[in-house]
Amino acid sequence: MNSINEIILVKPTKDMEIAALEYRKEHFDYGERIINGSELFDQIEDYDEWLEKVTANSKEETVSNDWVLTDTFFALRQFDNRIVGIVDLRYELNDFLKDFGHCGYSVRPSERQKGYATRMLSKICQIASQHGLKELQLSVEKNNLPSVKTILKNGGVYQRSFVVDSEIADVYHINL
Questions:
Q1: Closest listed residue to residue 67, CA positions, set 35, 100, 45, 43
Q2: Vertex 127: Cα angle to 126 and 133 (nearest 5)
Q3: Which end of the chain is least crowded, N or C, by CB within 10 Å?
């Protein structure tokens, strides 16, 4: 990857609000109403409310009863600190997540096809391994070929398929 496109993963903060809202707006401007890996940033209007929720869900003592311990990160391009993506890492799977998996991610529409998703997932694999996870499970709609390629580039192995919202999705595992 070109060094100009190097990224770091950072947890959201209050001073990232304007950049985060611009990031979300770009998805909406492209007609995308769902931002995978965003911990409902696409549904919660108020940034402070969303920030409070993701911060609470990142700590065992404050994680919501109906959720699992989760870290959410913005992917920042290092040379200009632009948010190019968002990714979350769920450290365990509950009944709701058993098909969906340990993480989700999205890349800003204007920044796609530059390798960011592959790099984001690679960094999440490193973090997951550091936290003792032995494998990551991910699911992807069968027709989302860019995401399938991202998972395969990170060592993903097809496990099974399931149907969600009338779409076929595939489940992959990545050994860490």
A1: 100
A2: 90
A3: N
**Max CA-CA distance within the chain?**
42
Q: Residue 34 and residue 155: Cα distance in Å, rounded?
A: 26
* Look-up of token digits 């950072």: 10
Which residues, given as ranges, of the chain have pLDDT below 70? 1-2
In the chain, where are the structural domains located?
Answer: 3-133
* Edge-to-edge strand ranges of the sheet holding 82-90: 7-10, 70-77, 82-90, 103-107
41-55 pLDDT, tens per residue? 999 999 999 999 999
Using a 10 angstrom Cβ sphere, with 0-12 exposed, 13-18 middle and 19 or more buried, the burial of residue 51 is: buried
pTM over 0.85: yes
Please, are residues 154 and 117 in contact by the beta-carbon 8 Å criterion?
no
